[in-house]
Amino acid sequence: MELKEYLEYLVEFIRETVKNANAKGVVIGISGGIDSAVVACLAKKAFPNNYTAVWMPIESSEEDYKCKQELIDQCGIKAIDVELKETFLSFKKAINESTTPDHKLAIANAKARLRMTTLYTVAQTNSYLVLGTDNLDEWHIGYFTKFGDGGVDMVPLVHLLKREVREAARILGVPASIINRAPTASLWENQTDESELGITYDQIDAYLAGEINDEVVKTKVDHLHKISEHKRNGAVAPNEFKRK
Prior knowledge:
- Helices cover 54% and strands 7% of the residues.
- By secondary structure, the chain is α/β, with parallel strands linked by helices.
């Protein structure tokens, strides 16, 4: 199947999932990144009159803001702003004043969880479902926040490699500034995905596609996949209680 045809299938998949849930549309968080840009464009195609994109800045960079605005302007994305900086700072202050040890990543992941809470509030208000943005690379290695950007109702890009998401962005008319920028979760200043992971998306793509057999990449990807298994599964339950 050609990628363009698969994107058309994804639009129908989104519509069908919403219909089966007896919902009315979809909500998507936009970040200025390529994955959320692609999903926002799919959301618009699926529900032109019943979708909402939500921009939720928390110490977001100027580039994040610039890219999200170009997406809105160039692709005609309908969006609302929910400023979460003060909420995040209040939460961070409360945590820091408790006996909880300081943990940079845990605090950064709280941003994703605040955004998840926001999206579900908007979704419930409108009888919408929440669209996720994780691609195959991120899902496979667990590069998402549990109950943050991983807390969604559907993951339309979950079978697409990062390079396929880039191609999808070109097909959908996503601004070049978004397509060409270094992937980042914007967890902290100057953070990039690849510097944090220690391998590139091109390497992960090639490994998952069966194109390379690099032992370093294989070891890294397999390890990340194994330790993130809990993120892709529901809550673990014990054996059933056998009543007499």
